[in-house]
């Protein structure tokens, strides 16, 4: 494994920690600033919106900068945002810090995916992407629980200061270990935008929004589901999140291992399995043992889609993958926001805390349908005589 992948994974670990740790520290932050929990929830929403906006924005701004230098600039932005959060004098400054840090998120994973894929042989691209995303999954096992504990015991500001320190380590690692890869010939904004004319790129992003949305429809409301339906105690929720993170870690490794050889079959299997497991969660959520096992499976199946989906976008972007890759990261967060809203809507409508699982199953099934359409279009293109094939735009 190239050591450069380790540097990217460290950056991913820091980003994953800061994204999710706020959920466990909302009461402390709300109390310190004298705001209600719903208002403090804007720190989660603001981050998600920042990722969706920042992914294309920061990537476009970096089209004339080498990918290594852009990764370093993004980590610097991430550090600045977390320091602003750590020393924020008021809630507005805290929210600004969250948004500043989030602007680096999508572009870092998008550009980082391209760099990771270029560091290895073509047949190992998905594995390299999975290695970088390992940092994100490990953050859910170690970084988020540890950051929550430190924040509750010592103070939430300490957590964000420590995350900023992780960002510095990631920045130094990128500076030292990531090589200066040559920029592709003719790389410019028009070329990057041209990738979105490829229907396969759009379909892959649709799979990302719907497939990962299926995961978040369930896990956004995991605390009330586990305590009110399954019967777990409040203190068990942290360890259930660790279990979910463990599933994400294992699924990410599985997706990276098999996507290089069987990308579309891997997507069919994981999206189909995710649909079935989410539907079953409406039943298994009523027992502690089966709920815990199902949570592990949701994490595994959900994150097993990440390396193949990201590689699918890279493969189909035809020599201009940077912007498409970054926008696909934003698509993950768009799916999160969509699913959280739909899940909340069915709970508000009175269907109970397990109803979001049905929403998740429908979203995952829709992603599977898009995968089948994508494969059918690809087979038709490959079977068409060369004279009648639609040319791929390379301008």
From TrEMBL:
Name of protein: MFS transporter
**Membrane topology, from the record:** Multi-pass membrane protein
Q: Record's InterPro entries?
A: MFS, MFS_dom, MFS_Efflux_Transporters, MFS_trans_sf
Where, per UniProt, does this protein localize?
A: Cell membrane
What is the species of this protein?
Answer: Kitasatospora phosalacinea
Asked whether the keyword Cell membrane is assigned, the reply is yes
Q: Which Pfam family, giving just one, matches this sequence?
A: MFS_1
PROSITE patterns documented for this protein: MFS
Print the keywords alphabetically.
Cell membrane, Membrane, Transmembrane, Transmembrane helix
Can you tell me where the transmembrane regions are? 42-61, 73-96, 102-121, 128-150, 156-178, 199-222, 237-255, 262-283, 289-309, 330-352, 358-377
Under the heading CDD domains, the entry gives: MFS_NepI_like
Q: Specify the Major facilitator superfamily (MFS) profile domain's residue ranges.
A: 4-382
């Amino acid at each position: 494994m190239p050591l450069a992948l380790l540097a990217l994974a460290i950056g991913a670990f820091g980003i994953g920690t800061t994204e999710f740790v706020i959920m466990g520290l909302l009461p402390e932050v709300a109390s310190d600033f004298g705001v209600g929990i719903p208002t403090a929830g804007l720190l989660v929403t603001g981050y998600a919106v920042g990722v969706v906006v920042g992914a294309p924005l920061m990537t476009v701004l970096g089209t004339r900068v080498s990918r290594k230098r852009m990764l370093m600039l993004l980590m610097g932005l991430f550090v600045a945002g977390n320091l602003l959060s750590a020393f924020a004098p008021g809630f507005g400054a805290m929210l600004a810090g969250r948004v500043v840090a989030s602007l680096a998120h999508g572009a870092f994973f998008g550009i980082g995916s391209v760099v990771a894929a270029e560091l290895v042989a073509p047949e190992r691209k998905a594995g390299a992407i999975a290695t970088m995303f390992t940092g994100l999954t490990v953050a859910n096992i170690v970084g988020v629980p540890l950051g929550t504990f430190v924040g509750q015991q010592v103070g939430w500001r300490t957590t964000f200061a420590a995350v900023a320190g992780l960002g510095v380590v990631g920045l130094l690692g990128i500076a030292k270990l990531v090589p200066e890869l040559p920029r592709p010939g003719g790389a410019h904004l028009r070329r990057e935008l041209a990738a979105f004319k490829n229907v396969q790129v759009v379909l892959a992003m649709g799979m990302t929004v719907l497939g990962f949305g299926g995961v978040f429809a369930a896990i956004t409301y995991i605390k009330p589901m586990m305590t009110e339906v399954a019967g777990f105690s409040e203190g068990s929720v942290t360890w259930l999140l660790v279990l979910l993170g463990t599933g994400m870690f294992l699924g990410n490794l599985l997706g990276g291992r098999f996507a290089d050889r069987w990308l579309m079959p891997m997507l069919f299997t994981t999206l189909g399995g995710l649909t079935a497991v989410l539907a079953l969660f409406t039943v298994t959520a009523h027992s502690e043992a089966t709920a815990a096992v199902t949570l592990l499976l949701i994490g595994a199946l959900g994150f097993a889609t990440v390396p193949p989906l990201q590689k699918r976008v890279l493969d189909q972007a035809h020599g201009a993958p940077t912007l498409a890759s970054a926008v696909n990261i934003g698509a993950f967060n768009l799916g999160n926001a969509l699913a959280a809203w739909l899940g909340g809507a069915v709970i508000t409508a009175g269907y109970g805390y397990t109803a979001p699982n049905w929403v998740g199953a429908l979203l995952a099934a829709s992603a599977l349908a898009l995968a089948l359409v994508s494969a059918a279009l690809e087979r038709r293109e490959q079977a068409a005589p060369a004279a009648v094939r639609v040319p791929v735009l390379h301008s």
